[in-house]
Amino acid sequence: MDTKSLINEAKARFSHNAAKSLLKDKYESKLIVADQGGLWKATPELIGFLSINTNENIVLIDNHNNPVLVNRVQLYETLHKIYTDTMNLWLTEWKELETKR
What we know:
Elements: H1 3-29, E1 32-35, E2 38-41, H2 44-52, E3 57-61, E4 67-71, H3 72-100
Antiparallel strand pairs: 1-2, 3-4
Helix pairs in contact: 1-3, 2-3
């Protein structure tokens, strides 16, 4: 390989990694939801906790470290939908990016 080919390959790899990073930032920001007086990030851990808890109302610490009394089922349904929709969109866009590689 000559120097020009190496430089072009390095630029392409950098561009691809930058695009993946931008994609991650784009979709991670869509996982943040304001609901029931708190700010929440739809994560598998929080969704899992909400799904196994049996109390109708629970106090959770939101993203700003504030305790918030929430309706567990309502928050679960909201976060589960946001997480599922966002991850499906992210996967679709990521697959498109990988085919351009």
